[in-house]
Amino acid sequence: xxxxxxxxxxxxxxxxxxxxxxxxxxxxxxxxxxxxxxxxxxxxxxxxxxxxxxxxxxxxxxxxxxxxxxxxxxxxxxxxxxxxxxxxxxxxxxxxxxxxxxxxxxxxxxxxxxxxxxxxxxxxxxxxxxxxxxxxxxxxxxxxxxxxxxxxxxxxxxxxxxxxxxxxxxxxxxxxxxxxxxxxxxxxxxxxxxxxxxxxxxxxxxxxxxxxxxxxxxxxxxxxxxxxxxxxxxxxxxxxxxxxxxxxxxxxxxxxxxxxxxxxxxxxxxxxxxxxxxxxxxxxxxxxxxxxxxxxxxxxxxxxxxxxxxxxxxxxxxxxxxxxxxxxxxxxxxxxxxxxxxxxxxxxxxxxxxxxxxxxxxxxxxxxxxxxxxxxxxxxxxxxxxxxxxxxxxxxxxxxxxxxxxxxxxxxxxxxxxxxxxxxxxxxxxxxxxxxxxxxxxxxxxxxxxxxxxxxxxxxxxxxxxxxxxxxxxxxxxxxxxxxx
Length: 485
Known about the structure:
By secondary structure, the protein is of the alpha+beta class. The chain has 16 helices and 15 strands. The chain folds into four domains: 9-87, Phosphorylase Kinase, domain 1 (2-Layer Sandwich), CATH 3.30.200.20; 94-268, Transferase(Phosphotransferase), domain 1, CATH 1.10.510.10; 273-372, Methane Monooxygenase Hydroxylase, Chain G, domain 1; 390-462, Up-down Bundle (Methane Monooxygenase Hydroxylase, Chain G, domain 1), CATH 1.20.58.80. The chain has helices spanning 48-63, 94-101, 106-125, 177-182, 189-203, 213-221, 236-245, 256-260, 273-291, 295-315, 319-344, 376-387, 394-409, 413-433, 438-462, 466-484; strands at residues 9-17, 22-28, 35-42, 72-77, 81-87, 128-129, 138-141, 147-150, 157-158, 164-165, 184-185, 347-348, 352-354, 359-361, 371-372. It has a five-stranded antiparallel sheet with strand order 1-2-3-5-4, with helices on one face. The longest helix is centred in the C-terminal third of the chain and has 26 residues, at 319-344. The radius of gyration is 27 Å and the shape is globular. The protein starts with 8 loop residues before the first strand and ends with a helix. The model is unreliable at 349-374 and 480-485 (pLDDT under 50).
């Protein structure tokens, strides 16, 4: 079949089609000849609602400029067709990617979900609800790195969190139950769709996969619980996110703020330009505190900066910049490890810095005075432990936290993090019930300290085998590229 003729563009091939549109790969004649995707719609076949959707899509895409949203480059029309010229995504869509891989490892799923969440956070800042999130509408770019972009805004609406009633929108398999059952819904319908996409990424199929719409509708009407496959292992954080998204009752479903702040996604440390600036500012503060011999606060700031630097390193595609960043990060890791040993064992240390390069020189024990000191934190712990004996559960929780500190000092970060979490899960509820007084003040200080040390432990855990994790990341990236080719 011959391809149609579009003024100013040369069509290469048909790459997709929908209910009222055909998408072609093309390039503009003359100039840079950049490859684009052109969405072509026959005006004679369009219903009134379809035309409204096209108008909405064009008006939204004019203002939606984001790294993880497919960019509209132009739009025009002739006597018969409406055309939307889009950024070309050379990796196909997420649906094809899942089919080729069958199911995605949790780290790859996290990467895609993080990018999707960044796009959704941008949409929410404009009060926009996509209304048709599904793997087919999530497009992939292979170079310079594998990147997910949200596309197809034909069903999108300006929609806040207040309830609305509209005609049915979206694809049934990914459609929130409240749309199918009540035709009343708010922006949280996008979160249900994200949960279904996440399920499909992890397990290779949607939870309500059915042979007919009637069968699908019956499953949803019955509000059948969504169960995770028994033979599939996912981490506790991953399980918590997917089960919190897939709540049939939208009032029980997690909120957008909870989604954006969820530990599994860790959007706070996503590899963005803003976060690079944060990482640099944190490490500068750490260096200054290090000069002032404030080892403990310097340690925590180095660790906090690493939470930002590590994703930036794994996301960097330029080999030269990546190697420079890797060398800097290695210096910060070494210094954090040294400071951890110094303050954890109750020593004071004279540290040295290379002022010209702003890169830390790790001191040996002979490089400065090493004096054993009694930590104020130890005094708080001992007094709190003495006062805790009258409360069931508090002494045990404190002992678990003390064990976490010991594992941290020994470099056993995975166990240390587990212990910090266990201690805090018991102490935080006790703190909420604690009456005003000396013990409450001490407990509050101890909880705050272990929260901070838990965060620092996460940073050290992520850097424990940096070279190995980088090799694995490179291998995963290579595998992704191979699958897409």
